Amino acid sequence: MTITENRPSGTGAGGRWTTTPTTPEEWIDRARDVATILAEDAVARDRGTEPPLAEVALLKDSGLATVLGPVEFGGGGQTWETAYRLIREVATADGSIGQLYGYHLLWFWAARLVGTPEQIAAVEQAATESRWFFGGAVNPRDNDVEIADEGDTLVYHGAKTFSTGSRVSDVTVLEGVLSGTDTHIFAIVPSNSEGLTFHDDWDNIGQRRTESGSVTIDNVRTDWSSAAGFVDKVFQPRVYNTLNVPIIQLVFVNFYLGIARGALDSAAEYTRTTTRAWLHSTVDNALDEPYIVDLYGDYTAKLWAVEALADAVAAEQQQLHDRADSVTEAERGEHEVRVAAAKARATEVALEITAGIFEALGARATASSHGFDRFWRNVRTHTLHDPVFYKRREVGRHVLTGELPTPTWYS
């Protein structure tokens, strides 16, 4: 059964889900339900080229897309601690959808990070009630998008190599530099805005269905009032503005760990049902093969350890979210060091597990029909987003000298 056939028609409206979760545990159970649906044809969908519209509809219909939204507007009212767990659960079944979901949640939260109180209230109400799915054209390695000031209007012009969420998004976060200044401006625009063209050119070995192709931004217009955090064309800064990087890096951590968990669980099921003991071993059943048992014990212990670290760092971050207006530079920097440590360990463990599971499966498991390679391809593709040794350097410099990372697009 495909996702389209199995997709619920809506929460509380005769669909698969007739209630909205209210506790973190209930939300995690909901994410597991979604992962179960995603897993049914994950191997086949990994080979597909169509945009994941049904998968995004599933995230919306399950309530996961609005889990951070205010309860009074139909959202889940949950914390980032819970949101990270949901990303991890979704990614166990499909790393691409785990990434799409995580990026969506970051951009959903962007108004909280940068906006004025009035913008935050307006965006969160509209995004929750209308179940917007967010994309973002904010790749910092490309040339800056240029912004022209035309009185009451901002005009964005440029291009970005990557724009995750592109064709499946309802709204897109744009970012650029105001012409003649060094002032960066974020704004949310409809994804069908005139001049915003998404190109179907994402053709990578992994994370194939993240809609991460390039985008052309040809004089896209929006009101100055949508410039996040600006009052009378002047930005209102606070340290909390810079928490976007720790958030997105923890998003990465959690879908890496979700992919690793999916690989390990899928491999264990194959081992239980299909793997044979080696002919020169002294056992008849693969479940008694000491090398196989050791491998699962080793990988599980490593994964549990990094999951625990990720959860601890998420809890630390939630304390910063809870007092956004009083976060200090030192607190932000110390937290980023912890995030960097989690990112480094999650990268290494996820790559080790997704590549190493084949040692417990046997040659027949390399048949493309099983799709075990997708786990490694997905992790390998995204872990190149920013070099992991620079994350270790953040940690090492802090340990040796007390240095804290300067806020950048990657630290």
From TrEMBL:
Q: Is the keyword Oxidoreductase assigned to this protein? A: yes
- Domain Acyl-CoA dehydrogenase/oxidase N-terminal: residue ranges: 38-120
Q: What keywords tag this UniProt record?
A: Monooxygenase, Oxidoreductase
Region ranges (Disordered): 1-23
- Superkingdom of source: Bacteria
Query: Which organism is this entry from?
Result: Rhodococcoides kroppenstedtii
- What Gene3D superfamilies does its record include? Acyl-CoA dehydrogenase/oxidase, N-terminal domain, Butyryl-CoA Dehydrogenase, subunit A, domain 2, Butyryl-CoA Dehydrogenase, subunit A, domain 3
Tell me where in this chain the Acyl-CoA dehydrogenase C-terminal domain is found: 251-385
Q: Which GO terms describe its molecular function?
A: monooxygenase activity
Q: Does the keyword Isomerase apply?
A: no
InterPro entries, per database record: Acyl-CoA_DH_C, Acyl-CoA_Oxase/DH_mid-dom_sf, AcylCo_DH-like_C, AcylCoA_DH/ox_N, AcylCoA_DH/ox_N_sf, AcylCoA_DH/oxidase_NM_dom_sf
- What protein name is recorded for this chain? Monooxygenase
